[in-house]
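Hi support team,

I'm opening this ticket because the web form for multi-chain structure prediction keeps timing out on my end. I have pasted the exact lines I submitted so you can reproduce it. The total is 711 residues across two entries, so I didn't expect it to be a heavy job. Is there a limit I'm missing, or should I split the entries? Thanks in advance, R.K.
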Amino acid sequence: MSKSNIEEINRNIYDFKNKDEYDYKIKKGLTREIIEEISKQKGDPDWMREFRLKALETYNKLELPTWGPDISELNMDEIATYVRPKTNISSSWDDVPDDIKDTFDRLGIPEAEKTSLAGVGAQYDSEVVYHSMKEELIKQGVVYTDMETAVREYPDLVKDHFMKCVPVADHKFAALHGAVWSGGSFVYVPKEVKVDIPLQSYFRLNSPESGQFEHTLIIVDEGASLHFIEGCSAPKYNKVNLHAGCVELFVKDNAYLRYSTIENWSKNMLNLNTKKAIVGKNAQMDWVSGSFGSKISMLYPMSILNGEGAKTEYTGISFAGAGQNLDNGFKVVHNKANTSSVVNAKSISKNGGKCTYRSLVRIGENAKNSKSSVSCESLMLDDFSISDTIPVNDVRNDDVEISHEAKIGKISDKTIFYLMSRGISEEDAKAMIVRGFAYPISKELPVEYAVEMNNLINMELEGSIG
Amino acid sequence: MKKELLKIENLHVNAGDKEILKGIDLKINKGEIHVIMGPNGSGKSTTANAILNNPAYSKTGGQIIFEGENINDFKTDEIARKGIFMSFQLPEEIPGISVTNFLKFAKNKVTGKPVKVFEFRDELKKYMEDLNMNPKNMERSLNVGFSGGEKKKNEILQMLVLNPKLAILDETDSGLDVDAIKTVSKGIEMFKNDDNAVLIITHNTKILHSLKVDFVHVLVNGKIVKTGTQELASEIEEKGYGEYK
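Hello R.K., no limit was hit. The queue was backed up. Here is the completed structure from your submission:
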């Protein structure tokens, strides 16, 4: 296994900001004129322009959620929803402007592309600046491109799937996304094609007081398989930034998709992201998710098991520090017989940070002989951090096996003393315990992300010992 | 010439408000094996914890000198890096950290030098064979799901790998069957040389059947009431602590 150079990480890697330079930045706010202008700037086909305008209408009708973290500080009049970087999309890093290329270099993306990825997409603010995939996958008919190109070149495929998994009316921010979406990746894996090496898209938001609304649409056709990795980060600004991306995954019969994410947004970010998967007969959808950054996160990936024998597994971790409120979880809907779901969620909170695990397990009338097992564990590093679990189980037939386990713990002084008696400092001892706690999740991540996650943990714990 | 390693002078230690050690003196030279015996609650484990400066205990008087330096207020990890090791009565479980990775990290901290991966693995393998340990334990999470005996052997393994100047074994023999006690004794013999020392803390005498020791101290009610040689242990085995209470 290879490692990318993100081993040498320090906070600067995420917090450095380039000058707020752009080719075009839409004025702040959200009006019909602004949506029309975004659509014009992006050169949408008519159907997409209509789609956006309709989504805006839906947005205006919907209320903010009445549950979960308080997001009233979000003022859409202060957010620029479209920022086009000063470059066109290219398939060679040499053609990417130096300051933007430098950003991705520091994040280790081109290096990882050389060593451990089959394809890479890189988005800077609202547009994808780089997209490339290995030749042999192209020959096998795999499509991996930015979303705008997909709208132009695969209109039927896109029309059949775009916001069909996550409907515009799902919630207010799904509607917002429908109106202002820009960038993101489109993947199509043809029937029976197994993509052995992962594809990775990285989303970087550089511009202050702006939003990122990338759309990721993945279709894994019958019997095919794919591992897709998504990375996100942004430098810290004083004012609120918004991320309301949308991920739609279609896992057809007998197909396999693994979707891994490390979200490390800066701590002024509201991360209101929507991710859903529709899983076919005997297909499997695995989610691996690490949520570190952002001020407020409301993120509940969802698997809809629509085929008999469909399976899903969710492995996720959240780490909340001072001023962070991470409201994360997983939803699964069992619609057919013999379906199964396994959830392994962990959270760590420190310095007053708040982690909530919010989940839904719905087992429908037809989902006979289905199984669901949920385990969530929280670790609190001090007495004033908060951890909460809000599970909802909605079971509509008798022929099911369902379990839910929740554990909340603290690091014991005895454990720290034990490790210190081996010459390990208190800081290192705590980091070691936290890394060990996170290990069942980090071992599921691609190796360079596991390294990154351990570095993030060490970074989060630095100086946290009073 | 005997070289002094540890000197404890008139040590008083509290656990909370309660005085546990009421002025103990102890001198350990390089090349020696000492035993502290005593009934339950006499302050044996407190002695070990006080030497390592466990924050759960507070020193109210006296001093602990290690290689000529007062270590009363040193942090536990500094004391460990000075060369004192403690085998725990109830070793902690650390999920997600393998025995190998833990020991590699600890060895690096204790020696201050980078650990050579392959040499280290070979060393670990050899010690595990010597201690009749399952080599698969190397990759298991530290102490998680280990039996009582496996945990104690794992403590001895750590002692051998970290190679301290002074090893304090707190009730390492308790709860072990005869074979496991023999393995622990073997580990101590492998470890022991003229430049280091061992302090065994125990409430029974079983381990002394398979190990030769230099000094036996009887600790009762927070004070060392008698010091002798191996014969003292036999005497206590016969008569108990009755006469010292």
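A quick check on our side: Chain B is about 35% helix and 30% strand. Let us know if the file doesn't open in your viewer.
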